[in-house]
């Protein structure tokens, strides 16, 4: 609702009210339309101030309305009414002015903001663009460079930044509404024509055409296949070459095109799916609703390698003091140096004054962990080492302390079995770099208590991460699926593809880096060690396999061969690509590898065939999707949304494709099923190509929308 009251006799204050962030729903727009017109017609009102209830100006449009038909007055018309008012209109911005909220503020003649307020156009992150004049008014107000950056990235900026750019007129650390009311009183009777942004022309650099061409090339490179940023550029371009009304028309055309696109549906699906991960559940019936978490006052991290360092920083950034533990003095000192340097950068970046040095302590003595509430073990992936540590922790830590492992693949239940408190053991699978990456897989074993899960999920929220609850199995959700992605990429090399070709197709799809570039960056030896631990290669190899088969299934030893030759990726200067030196970052053509692949195929009698773009995408993505259906069948993940958010936030799946399960629903489940059947027929020794029974069931039931899969999953599982 929108209501107005009079202040200082002649100032009408209109308050937008639609909790929690005053989104411009059809009801609010209708109410505002009537309220503003009444205030405008009131002869005793000389100026109008617009504000938002509960310290938030306006969070923009109601996303839920995008899926249906729009009703009520359009936001374009409302903002036009505001701008054309003969009485000065001032926006009092507190909290946020985002999307349609910022467009409304730009329609006002003046803008006053609280210093802690944020403004921005996040529409592009939903696959859309500002569609109530934002792409036309903002470039007329500030520089083209700044307008393009804000509109094409969805970046939020602070009120002081907005003041520097010229978006707001004044910033205050006091009450923004009070200041706006006083300001409105001072400007009564002043000319409003210069303040109407629709009447201005867009200020342009001298060679605007070259500028826009360069902007297009840059945005195309950064957007990696997303269409919304490019549409945003087209809309801003219209502000340069068209009248305001013509630009509005172009903006609307582009918005309608985007609204019906698959990418917009995917991005809006992701928006809601991310929020749905907080509503976790376990097969036992425990849920986010019926389980309470415990407060954490102090934590410990064991192992100060790459992961342990990042986890320590993530915890301290969340305000939790940490005792960091290492087994050797040299490793402890090295870890301490890096962690303190990372903390210094993080706190300087956020301009925080907290004495972070006092929040981190370093020790070799496990006895110091007696008073912590939670321990995160982050040593390397070795079951016997982890069990040894957990056995010690079980006897040293307080009886109610949570014992967490950062394992990425190992059995949580086996680790918990050596403790006296398996109900307090939970997996917390961070992703590198742990203080940056948003995903946290929270893994429960058969004996993990709901309280342990709730506490880990609360901690994820405290660290500003996307926590997703998953069950216990080899690789959990993310790595179990990713394994098939890498496996198929190796098979494609055996059959005739080259790393550059595979990577290019995946990057064109939208991944920031292709699979082989990622492998070189991470280090080939990481996956090699996992293979050795699983008995697939090396001294622990399980007897009975052949060179290219393990347990009757096809196996690619390409990674093993490269590791045995010391080609570990960037760290050694050679892997799937060649680098100018060990530690080099720029990949280049590796002539040795290409020659080696030819010799490998000839030696093993592999018939080379042309591998096209479609086969690369289908072979890399569809088996991964198929495993997602298997994971749903096994109830390792509670929903397709959970699987998708794990892939988006942990494995850089392009957000504009929604995630693997949503992507499957977009391209069509029958297509995925048919292609899996096709490839499984050609490669019967790759069992992961055999379509999941759940996928078959969904196709047999007419490929229902992803939002209804839950009912089919329950029915399917009840019959297994």
UniProtKB/TrEMBL annotation:
It comes from the Eukaryota. InterPro entries: 3-OHacyl-CoA_DH_NAD-bd, 3HC_DH_C, 6-PGluconate_DH-like_C_sf, ClpP/crotonase-like_dom_sf, Enoyl-CoA_hyd/isom_CS, Enoyl-CoA_hydra/iso, NAD(P)-bd_dom_sf. Its EC number is 1.1.1.35, 4.2.1.17, 5.3.3.8. Residues 298-472 form the 3-hydroxyacyl-CoA dehydrogenase NAD binding domain. Keywords: Fatty acid metabolism, Isomerase, Lipid metabolism, Lyase, Multifunctional enzyme, NAD, Oxidoreductase, Peroxisome. Pathway: Lipid metabolism; fatty acid beta-oxidation. PROSITE patterns: ENOYL_COA_HYDRATASE. It catalyses: a (3S)-3-hydroxyacyl-CoA + NAD(+) = a 3-oxoacyl-CoA + NADH + H(+); (3S)-hydroxyhexanoyl-CoA = (2E)-hexenoyl-CoA + H2O; (3E,5Z)-tetradecadienoyl-CoA = (2E,5Z)-tetradecadienoyl-CoA; (3S)-hydroxyhexadecanedioyl-CoA + NAD(+) = 3-oxohexadecanedioyl-CoA + NADH + H(+). Monomer. In the C-terminal section; belongs to the 3-hydroxyacyl-CoA dehydrogenase family. This is Peroxisomal bifunctional enzyme. It comes from Polypterus senegalus. The gene is Ehhadh.
